[in-house]
Design goal:
By secondary structure, the protein is an alpha+beta fold. The protein has 4 domains: about 100 residues, no CATH class; about 80 residues, 2-Layer Sandwich (Beta-Lactamase), CATH 3.30.450; about 70 residues, Orthogonal Bundle (Helix Hairpins), CATH 1.10.287.130; about 140 residues, Histidine kinase-like ATPase, C-terminal domain (Heat Shock Protein 90, 2-Layer Sandwich), CATH 3.30.565. Helices cover about 55% and strands about 15% of the residues. It is built from 11 helices and 12 strands. The strands form 3 sheets. Strands 2-1-5-4-3 form a 5-stranded antiparallel sheet, sandwiched between helices. The chain has a 5-stranded mixed sheet with strand order 7-9-10-12-11. A two-stranded antiparallel sheet has the order 6-8. Strand 3 and strand 4 form a beta hairpin. The N and C termini lie far apart (about 90 Å). The relative contact order is 0.05.
C-alpha cells in the first residue's frame, strides 16, 4: 500500500505540472524507489519499481493512456529505468542492512564491555557464579541463563523464564565441550572453555546472538570464574598465613609472659634446695613467692587458653554477678610486676552496680587495655582507670599520657595484628591485645572506643548490666 500510494503521488504531481518532461518524472519515480528501499525494505521497493514502470509507461510515454510503446527508444528507456530502480533499491537496501548490522555489532561490543566491567565489580557478599548469571541476563536482556560449573557441580539460574530439561546437555557441554542450538525457541548451549579445557556449560535463551558474541560471553564467563577461583585461593593462602602468624605470635607472647613468673618460681625453689636449713621465716617467704608466681603462671595459662578460644567465631560467656571495681583492682594488682611500680589509679566516684559478666574474660579484656596503656606511655606517668555508672550498666575509662594515636589510625587500632608503623619496631607487641579486648566486650553486648590526642589517650569500655542472650 505504501509503495502504490507513493507511485500515485508522484504520478499525480507529474501530471499536474504542465511543463514537466518524462525524464524529470522518471527521476521522481527513481527517488521514490530509493526512499522506499531505505525506509521500508526490498520487497516494497520491488513493488514500487514495477508500479513506477507501469505508471511511467501509461501516463508519460506516447501513446499516453496505453501500455503500448511505439518508439523503440522508449522501450530501451523503460527497461533501463526498471533495471536502475531495481539495482538502486537493492543497493539502498544493502546499505541499510549494513548500517543495521554495524549498529548491532556496536551494541554487542558495548554489552560485552559492560559485562566485563560488571564481572570486575562483583562483590563477595553473594556467590560469584550466581551474581555472574544475573548480570549476564540483565545486560543482554535474556529470558533465561543457566550456568553449570564443572568444579562445584552446581547449577546457577537467572532470568524471568525457566530453562528446564537441559541439565544433561549442560553437563555434556561442561564435560565434553559439546554445543547445542534450538533456533525455534532461541536457545543456545555452549561450553565455557579456559584455554582448550571446558570448565562449565552455559545456556542462553532470548534474543538471537551471533556465534562470535556467544563465544565472547563464554570467554568472559571463563575469565570471571577463574578470577573468582584465584581470589578464593588467595584468600585461603592469606588465611593460612594469618593463622600461622597468629600461632607464632601467641607462642612468642606465651614464652615472654611465662618467663618472669617461671624465673621467680625457679629462683625460690632453688634457694630452698640450696639452703634447706635456713630460718623458717625465710623459707616461708620463699614458698610464698613461689606460690604467688605459680598462681600468676596459672592465670597466664588460662589467659592464653582464652586467647585461643577468642580466635573461634563463637565466644561463650559464662556470666556471674561481678563487682567491676573489685575486678579492676584485682587486674591492677596482678600486673604489679609488669608495671615497674608505676601507679595505676582506680577511681570510682560511686559504688557501681553488679553486672552479669564472665569474670575471666572481662579481666583479660581490662588487662589488655592496661597493658596497652603501660606500653605506649612514658614510665613516669600514671595510668588512670575511671569507673562510672551509665544508667543501664557501667563504664570503664582507661587513660594514659603517651604520644597519642594519629587520627587516621584510630579506626584501625582494633584490627587484629595491626600495629602503627611509627611504633612497630620500637615497642614489642603482637597487635592482638585491643582486638581481643573488643571481641570480649562485644560478646558482652558492650562497646569499646578510643579518643586520642597528643598527651592523652582514653579507651572507653561500656557494658550493660545484663548482656543480651546471657543469663545466670
Amino acid at each position: 500500500m505504501i509503495s502504490l500510494a507513493g507511485v500515485a503521488l508522484v504520478t499525480w504531481t507529474g501530471s499536474a505540472v504542465v511543463s514537466v518532461n518524462a525524464t524529470t518524472v522518471a527521476f521522481g519515480y527513481l527517488l521514490l524507489v530509493l526512499i522506499i528501499a531505505t525506509v521500508w525494505g526490498y520487497v516494497e521497493a520491488i513493488v514500487a519499481s514495477i508500479a513506477s514502470t507501469l505508471a511511467f509507461n501509461f501516463f508519460f510515454l506516447p501513446p499516453v493512456g496505453t501500455l503500448t510503446i511505439t518508439d523503440p527508444q522508449n522501450v530501451v528507456s523503460l527497461f533501463s529505468f526498471l533495471a536502475t530502480a531495481l539495482v538502486g533499491s537493492r543497493l539502498s537496501m544493502t546499505a541499510k542492512q549494513r548500517a543495521l548490522d554495524a549498529a548491532a555489532r556496536q551494541r554487542d561490543v558495548e554489552r560485552l564491555y559492560t559485562f566485563s566491567r560488571a564481572i570486575l565489580l562483583i562483590e563477595k557478599s553473594e556467590s560469584f557464579p550466581k551474581q555472574l548469571v544475573r548480570k549476564l541476563a540483565e545486560i543482554f536482556e535474556l529470558n533465561a541463563v543457566v550456568l553449570y560449573e564443572r568444579r562445584s557441580e552446581e547449577f546457577y539460574r537467572a532470568g524471568p523464564s525457566d530453562f528446564e530439561g537441559q541439565d544433561d546437555q549442560l553437563k555434556d557441554a561442561a564435560l565434553q565441550g559439546t554445543s547445542f542450538a534450538d533456533p525455534v525457541r532461541h536457545r543456545t548451549i555452549s561450553a565455557v572453555r579456559l584455554g582448550s579445557e571446558p570448565i562449565a556449560g552455559l545456556a542462553l535463551q532470548g534474543s538471537v546472538m551471533p556465534d562470535s558474541v556467544v563465544q565472547g560471553i563464554g570467554n568472559l564467563v571463563a575469565i570471571g570464574l577463574e578470577r573468582s577461583r584465584a581470589q578464593d585461593l588467595a584468600a585461603q593462602v592469606e588465611a593460612a598465613q594469618q593463622s600461622e602468624k597468629l600461632r607464632t605470635t601467641l607462642l612468642d607472647a606465651m614464652a615472654h609472659e611465662f618467663k618472669t613468673p617461671l624465673t621467680s618460681v625457679i629462683a625460690a625453689t632453688s634457694a630452698l634446695l640450696d639452703s634447706p636449713d635456713q630460718p623458717l621465716p625465710s623459707r616461708v617467704e620463699l614458698l610464698k613467692i613461689a606460690d604467688e608466681e605459680a598462681h600468676r603462671l596459672k592465670e597466664l595459662i588460662d589467659d592464653t587458653v582464652d586467647m585461643g578460644r577468642l580466635d573461634a567465631t563463637d565466644i561463650r560467656v559464662n556470666a556471674e554477678p561481678t563487682n567491676i571495681e573489685d575486678l579492676v583492682r584485682e587486674v591492677a594488682a596482678s600486673m604489679r610486676a609488669d608495671r615497674d611500680n608505676r601507679p595505676i589509679q582506680v577511681i570510682c566516684a560511686e559504688s557501681p552496680p553488679a553486672i552479669l559478666a564472665d569474670r575471666r574474660l572481662l579481666k583479660l579484656a581490662i588487662k589488655q587495655l592496661l597493658d596497652n596503656a603501660l606500653k605506649y606511655s612514658p614510665p613516669e606517668t600514671p595510668i588512670t582507670v575511671q569507673i562510672g555508672n551509665t544508667g543501664g550498666g557501667i563504664s570503664i575509662a582507661v587513660t594514659d599520657h603517651g604520644k597519642g594515636i594519629p587520627s587516621q589510625e584510630q579506626s584501625r587500632v582494633f584490627e587484629r595484628m595491626y600495629r602503627s608503623p611509627a611504633v612497630s619496631r620500637q615497642i614489642p607487641g603482637s597487635g592482638l591485645g585491643l582486638s581481643i579486648a573488643l571481641s570480649i566486650v562485644r560478646a558482652h553486648s558492650g562497646e569499646l572506643s578510643v579518643t586520642s590526642h597528643p598527651g592523652e589517650t582514653t579507651f572507653l569500655l561500656t557494658l550493660p548490666a545484663e548482656p543480651k542472650g546471657v543469663t545466670l
